[in-house]
């Protein structure tokens, strides 16, 4: 039986060590070391070096667990316990020295998320949670906001699969731009989730992302009192590629617009949402 609190705090230290490595490499980083994985999707030796450091440390911490990692330096194996690792979430931000970018580590058992740790490197902030134990930032307990949709600060990210996502993001912007508090994009799924957990954002939505992008942050949101689903509204989201995370108050509002297929009617739909909120 894993001691979740003790293990979480140990993972925080591992994430901090990886963050220190990334911070050090950023000081001497050259754009010549960047590789293109897909269109507008980049990787560097720093991502891979961070992942090797994390995997090695996690193997010592919990030898029986397998891995799902973005850079595929380790294998899942047969164990029901599995680490889900993004060694550098926000690589494009990192390349351009544009905050935030982070290390994200989760522990899963089957479809259940047991531990979530996200370390934001630029601000030196470690967000963490374990199942049933609450969510924390630097030992201070987190709780989501209580904002309604008309005053909400939303994060609407732009995933790399631009052709497939354009109809959805157009629908979201058409509905929410000018009708909510404001809209932001931070370039890191892990950090968008942590900002929802901390009440800095009220809602976040993104599709076409990997498990390593959202697994740790999703637990942190849920343990902070928020709600996480996929784009279909299912709370069984861990095997998919979409996430809607909010304070719970505005979850239905985001899902309604995401799943509204009638183009050109978003303003009326949004007005109805505001009137009924």
Description:
With 277 residues, the protein is of the alpha+beta class. The chain has helices at 4-26, 45-61, 91-95, 162-176, 189-197, 211-223, 251-258, 266-276; strands at 35-38, 41-43, 66-69, 81-89, 102-109, 112-120, 125-130, 135-137, 140-141, 153-156, 182-184, 203-207, 227-229, 242-246. The protein contains eight helices and 14 strands. A seven-stranded mixed sheet has the order 3-4-5-6-7-8-9, with helices on both faces. Strands 11-10-12-14-13 form a five-stranded mixed sheet, with helices on both faces. A two-stranded antiparallel ribbon has the order 1-2. 45% of the residues are buried. A hairpin with a 2-residue loop joins β1 (35-38) and β2.
The helix/strand series, from N terminus to C terminus, equals HEEHEEHEEEEEEHEHEHEEHH
Query: What order do the strands of the largest sheet run in, or round the barrel if closed?
Result: 3-4-5-6-7-8-9
Percent of residues in β-strands: 15-25%
Distance between the termini: 44 Å
Rg calc = 18 Å
What's the mean pLDDT score? 90
Please outline the major beta sheet.
7 strands, mixed
Low-confidence segments, given as residue ranges, are 38-42
Give the structural class: alpha+beta
Helix content: 25-40%
Q: Could you say which overall geometry the principal axes of the C-alpha atoms support?
A: globular
Number of helices: 8
Instruction: Let me know the number of strands.
Output: 14
Describe what is shown at a glance.
The protein has 277 residues and is α+β, with helices and mostly antiparallel strands. Strands 3-4-5-6-7-8-9 form a seven-stranded mixed sheet, with helices on both faces. The protein has eight helices and 14 strands.
